[in-house]
Structures are given as structure tokens and as C-alpha cells.
Amino acid sequence: MKNITLSLLIMIMSGTLAFAEEAPMLAKDPELEERVKAISLGLRCLVCQNQTISDSNAGLAVDLKNQVRDMLRQGMSEGEIKDFMVERYGDFVLYDPPVKGTTMVLWLGPLLMLILAFWMAVRIVRRRSRDLDAPQNSKDAARARELLKD
Length: 150
Hints:
Blueprint: H1 2-17, H2 30-40, H3 59-73, H4 78-89, H5 104-133, H6 138-149
Helix pairs in contact: 2-3
């Protein structure tokens, strides 16, 4: 019985190795890898959307990192690489999009939502306070009129 249990355990453990992936190849030049990482930290993963391509393991993020690496090898500057990515994927690919007409919603949206929420809260509170002051039924209204006459 122990042998069967041990055999099953070994089979299960070895099965997980089939899902392991090989680590990505790093350039032989550590300076190049530092530049790739610096640029990758400023680009958003289009699959994950809340991670940089440097942090993401998605296939597209790996491809984008490889593209950045190839562009750096071709002598392109950081600005040229970012311009290429923006031209291809739009301003959304940048983690810090520029302030311009098309990205105004990204910059002002949270502020507008906060102002709208504050305005709605004030209206609700005012309406509730008016409702509390109003008589609840005709008997209450008549009694209120009598009290106000005195």
C-alpha cells in the first residue's frame, strides 16, 4: 500500500513539471537589459491592463519586451520606442499618458466622478431632511397647523 501511495505521489509531482516554462532569455549585455526594463516599466500590458510589461508574463507582454530589446539593438531611443508603441497601440499603452484632448477623460474623470458623488450626497441629505420636517399624514398636518397658530 505504501508503494502505491508513493508511486501516485511521484506521478502527481512529476506531472506538475510538464506545466513549467523556461525562463526568458536575457541579453548578454546587462546594460541593455537595464534599459529594456526601464522602458518596460513605463509601458502597460495590454492583456493584464494593471501591470507593466516588465511585470507581466502574458505572451503579448513578452513579445513587447522582445520588440523593445530589438529596437534598442537597432539604436532607437526611448522616446522613439514609446512613440512607436503609442502609434501602434494608442496612449493607453503608456502608464503615464500625456495630458491632451484625447486623454482628458483619463485625467479629469476621477475628479468629475468625485464632484458628482459629492453633489448627489448633498441632494440626498437635503431631501431626507425636508422629508423629516414634512408632516406624515393629514392628522399630523392639522395638528401642526394648530400648534403653529398658538
